[in-house]
Amino acid sequence: PTPVILDGDPGHDDAINILLALASPELDVLGIGTVFGNVGLEHTTRNALVTRELTRHSVPIYAGADRPLVAPRISAEAVHGHSGLDGPHLPPPQRGAEAGHAARFIIEAVRARPGEITLLPTGPLTNLALALRLAPDIAPLIRQVVWMGGSTDTGNWTPAAEFNALADPHAAHIVFSSGVPLTMFGLNVTHQAIAHPARVQAFRNLGTRAGEFVAVLLEFFAEHHRERYGWDGGALHDPMTAAWLLRPDLFVSRSMYVEIDLTDGPSAGRTVADVWHVTGRPQNVQVVTQVDADGFFALLVERIKRYP
Ligand code: BDR
Ligand code: CA
Question: pTM to 2 decimals?
Fold first, then answer.
């Protein structure tokens, strides 16, 4: 199996990515890092813990950064609710997070298995940026990073910027300029996978605790998307990162040069993508452009079905 480290800010779609990865024997999930983002670090860590308990998996969870490197902190209670995982009622977690910072965990894991580990960040890139600054030697040892964030077109938090990019643009810059092989799942592709009611029903029809958990998450997540975009469901961003490892045939991608706008002003945090190669600069990002949304949801249902 492919050794992976998840790192996110659960978050409805982050939680579903955790379930997808832990249900998949093709992936060996070595650990899960948490980061501030959708809500504060205490909540995102708790949400990772309660999601793990639903799976009965013993994967270690490490809390990471509670704030961005430089930018002011933003959060997304409007999308994910006060807890960051509003909707389902879950018992408090029985087991806590491990001692030690998520960035330290990344450093130690990558050094222990040079060239092997894939990182799947689905929130602000702060933990990975900290790891790269604390231990620059790990950059050539990371097999690849598959990140949900950014966009080749419009943003969702400002007209120009996607939430995960805007939440820590300097961290994103560190990762994008690190030379680590990077795949980007931006809004340009994640907005192609809407969890409309028929797709939600497929999870509920499983008749399991995990199926119901996912259905309730998606129903809560749909509310913001209905209001803001007029869509009949939420865009299922984060689980595309694990899905890419399991079924790359569901996606179309292209290499291009992408850099983060670090200036202040209306384009701050934008992932400026050189779609037409006008700069002639070396292509540093594999940008995913299309998804077979039916195939993606079918994969998710089939994997969630494996839980009791
Ligand atoms: C991203 O922001 C968060 O709200 C979601 O979890 C996803 O990672 C989408 O912009
Ligand atoms: Ca997220």
Answer: 0.98
